Amino acid sequence: MLSKEQSNELSQRVISVLSKERLSQCSKIQLQWMDWLMDKSLEKVDNDPNQITNERIVGIYEMVTQHLQPYEFDIEM
To answer: pTM for the full model?
Structure first.
């Protein structure tokens, strides 16, 4: 589990890489998917956020918004 400081730093990096505007367009379900995939990625690197690359962050975003929960199929329940 990440410390509060590590979590905040990773969150800021995600915002920096993806932009607030892009993230604000995501649905609640998409954000939950991204959180889950980020957690899985962190588990693979022994919870070292420094090993999560910017490319990995973009990859998680694209996986969710293009494949798992595309915008055109986004239905809030």
So the answer is: 0.88
